[in-house]
Structure formats: structure tokens, C-alpha cells
Amino acid sequence: MTSVTASPVDFASLPRAELADDGGRALDALVLVTADICGAVAQAVAAGYAVMPTGGLTSAIGSFEYAKDGVAGFNGVVAIRPKGALVAEVVDGCTPPEQLLTHQVAIDAANGLIAVGAGLTFSQVNAALAEAVNPCARVLVDLTSIGSAYVGGVVATGAMGPLRMRPSVTLEAVVLADGGEARVLSGDDLDAVEGLQGWTGMVVAAQFRFYEVPSSEFGLVLPVQGSDVDAVAGLLAYLEPWTQVNLPGAGGHLGNGDTVLNGVELVSRDSLEDFVNHAPEPARTKAQGLLQSCEYAGADMLACITGWSEQTVDDVLFSLMDPETETIGGVMIEYGIGFSSGSEMETFRAIREGAPDLARTKARVKPEGKMKPWTSSTDINLAAPADTGAISDVLTAYADYRAAIRALAKEMAPTGIEIELAAYGHLSPHGIDPHHRVTVFAPEGQDAALDEARKAVLAFKRTLIHELLNAAERGGSRITGGEKGIPSLVEIARAAGGEDRLPAELKTRLTRARDAVMAAPVNFTFRAPAELKGA
Ligand SMILES: Cc1cc2nc3c(=O)[nH]c(=O)nc-3n(C[C@H](O)[C@H](O)[C@H](O)COP(=O)(O)OP(=O)(O)OC[C@H]3O[C@@H](n4cnc5c(N)ncnc54)[C@H](O)[C@@H]3O)c2cc1C
Fold it and tell me: Is-above-0.90 flag for pTM?
């Protein structure tokens, strides 16, 4: 509800947060779980609290970090979390988004619109659409945490999944609470919320356009030789026509009944090997089969292709094949493995997501006798033309980064420092963002060596971003940011040597983000980076 006079909150009696930032430091905050975000935010602001919006808590960007003196004058920090539910409650389709509770949805099927409360996940939103409209109706937000991240958190982080579409591509409106009456933002004003991590206010609800997708989903895994950047680039350039998602009008059918590839994801053989050692069945046996395929094909990476189609996975394979070469973009199909039914797709996802999840988890756990690991992942999304040379140029920058990290690992081994590299993530030509996670493990007491490794990795990462900016300029590609929203842009700007060196589109987004942060109440902006506060 928009009401700012909701039942009074007794802040003194709220529990303390059991939250921690990425470095493992406890966050000193109260926690308030509520179905009435607007009322809670207004009371928190009036009572002199800094507000940290929280969602599904699936983000790993150190977003809870704040400088103590930044909140001077406040009573403290209150973490406000929208109340969720097991299933979404469907209310009258005419209900305005600003009147939704955090677990409610309002579906306007005639206009292809769904308004959703901030405390739902997109799995729940799509389940409500399937029930009320059609099993193929979807909001096209596909990050791999759609079952655990909340709508508010996804909008606030500007998250993207394999489709490489930011929420704003299908967002109609957002309801924002920042202390007074809730405001409904749309059009260009969405820039004042998307990707801003809650630094300008708290997302109460959002309204999305939804679409119908072809009736069956498939997965196809092709072993590839990642060090052969031309071969991978050839595959991506070849697949480009199937990865173009031209959105019809809201509620319309995607892909004219043809096959749509909604993701080309990379999983490195190393991370798959690690996964096999920990995975439950049936994913383990299937992953072992994929490792065998890598072995036969002499491959060090897997390209995991997903899509929607009206055809069977065998027919899809046939339709993707170049009849002259009997390959898919130069990649032999004889070692490819297809997945089609619901349970097979679950296994496919368990493998595709399991490998990166393991790397993320490992990076958070302090091993016996060692310090807490330090970790850093790359995140820069680049839309390339269907040109093998241009894509190859981009992939070469990543190959150089991998080589630099491996050399560093070798050089630092005598100090007891271990450096692990896991590559996974997005290869769709209109969204090349293969995350490369580096994790550094150091024996207790080796602070100086850990610091040295950390600085070297960050320097290589800056070089990578530089190289990507150069490759984009040479090859006619477009850097579109990253999946951590504005923090990704800030990182790219720092690596580029300043905002002025950014492509015009990104520079404009950063300027708009700064304007939004500077206009927002300090109760929210206390966590924003200095660059956005005019410093
Ligand atoms: C297994 C796994 C897979 C993932 N896959 C992807 C992926 O494919 N793509 C991707 O982009 N990310 C991915 N992520 C990262 C994460 O899921 C996303 O960043 C997600 O959008 C965070 O949503 P959340 O609800 O968990 O937000 P939280 O982690 O709770 O918060 C994230 C940030 O948003 C702010 N925030 C939260 N709720 C609100 C609100 N209502 N209003 C305003 N600000 C708010 C918080 O203050 C914080 O700064 C993955 C994470 C995991 C663990």
C-alpha cells in the first residue's frame, strides 16, 4: 500500500540483522520484514534511520559495505525486506502497481502487462502467468537465480541472465518509496532506479510486459576448444541470427514459431571436473558424460546452448547444422549432447549453474589453516556484430587474462599462495560476458603475499577491461555495462581511466545515475560510491 500512515513500527524492538558484507563483516542493522514497504520506509526515514533495502540476499557484490561516518546523525541502519509468500496472490488486474502488497500480482492479460510486488521471485511471477494466462507466458527476466532473487532486488541490481536483457527492456513502470508518498517511475526515469542498488530508494513493485515463448525448451552442449578463439568466435558469429530476440508487442508471441536461442553459456572443463567431485545424482553422471565428450573432442570448454522451440531437440540440432560442413558454426556435433524434457532440463541447469556456484561458495569459506580467500570476478557485457574477427578480438583479451593469471599462479606458488581460475558465463554474441572468477588462497600470516596477489589480479583485470574497450572500438562492438548495474559501470570507468573515456551511452548512464543519487535522500545514498555523490 502507498499509505505512509501504516501501523506504527516500534524500531527499538526490531531484531538485529544477521547480515554480513562480502568480506564477512557483520552489518550492524535492525531488520524489518514487511508487506507495506512504503509505510515502513516513511517511518524509518522520519525516525532518522538509514535504509538498506534487501531482497533475496543472493547478490555478491559487497553491497552492504558502508562507511560508519557516512551515517553520522542517523539512529542507525534498518534493513527493510519485503515480505514474501509461497505463491503469488493474484489480485484484480486493474489494481494499480502502487497498491500492491509485496506478495501480490495484478495481471492485465489484454495488454500483456503484469504488475508484481517486490517480495516475489520471477519463478513465482511466471508460475502466476502460467496459471492465469498460458503455460508459455513469461516475463523475460532470466537470471539464473530467478528462483531466489526478489523482484525488487533484480530491478535494483539491473541483473541480466543468459538472454542478456536488462530488466528495463521489458519494464513498464517501477514504484519507488523514499520517505514520502510512493512515486511511479517509467520511461527514462527508470534510470533513477535500475542498477542503482537501492541508493535512491526502495522498489515497492514493478510492472512488466510479458510475452509468449515457443512451447518447448531445450539444451544443447557442445565441447569447444576455448584457447582456439577463432573457432569459438566462428561458432558465435554463426549462431547470431538465432540469438536475436526481436520483441513483439506486449503479450505477443516470440520467434514466429521458430527456434530462439536464449543463451549460449560457457562452462570450463576445470570447473566441471570440480563439480563432478561434489555433485549429487543424476547431475554427477551426466556431468561425467560431458567430461568424456570434452576428452573425445580434445576440448577444454563447453558451450551450453539453450532455447525455446516448437520442434524437438533433434530437429533443432538439424536446423542449426550447416548442411555443407555438417557442423554448427565449425564445431563438430558428434560429441554434442541434447537435453529436452523438464527433468533433463533441470539436470542441465544443475550442471550449468553448479560449476560457477561451487566456485562462488568455495570463495566464501575459510579453509583450515588458511586465511579467508579473496575473490574477484569479471563482469563487462559486450554486444558484438556477427563478425568472427571482431568476436575473436574480444575473446583474445580473455585468453590473455587467463594466461596472465596462470603465470601469476605459477610465480606465487613458492610463497604458498594458491590461485584458482574458473570461467563460466555468457557467450551470446549480443552479450559476451564470460565471467572469469579468480580466487586467492593464502596460508595464515601471509597477509603481504595475499595483498601482492590481490593487487596483481586487479591490475590484470584493469588491463582486460582496457583491452575490451579497445577491441569494442576496433570491431564495432558495444559495451553495454555489466550485470551489477551501476557498480559495474563505475568499475569500467575506473579501469578506463575516467568517465570521459567511456563510450557516450555509458557516460550518459553514469551521469543520470549521479543526478539520481544526488537528488535522493541521504538515508539511501549513504552506501553509494563517492563518484556518484559528486566527489
Ligand atoms: C546462484 C546464483 C546465480 C546468480 N545468477 C545471476 C545471473 O544470472 N545474473 C545476474 O545478474 N546476477 C546473478 N546472481 C546475482 C544476484 O542473484 C542478482 O544480483 C539479483 O538481482 C539480486 O537480487 P536479490 O533480491 O537477491 O537482492 P539482494 O542480494 O538482497 O540485494 C542486492 C542489492 O539490491 C538492493 N535491493 C534489494 N532489494 C531492493 C529493493 N526492493 N529496492 C531497492 N534496492 C533493493 C540491495 O540493497 C543490494 O544493494 C546470481 C546469484 C546467485 C547466488
Answer: yes
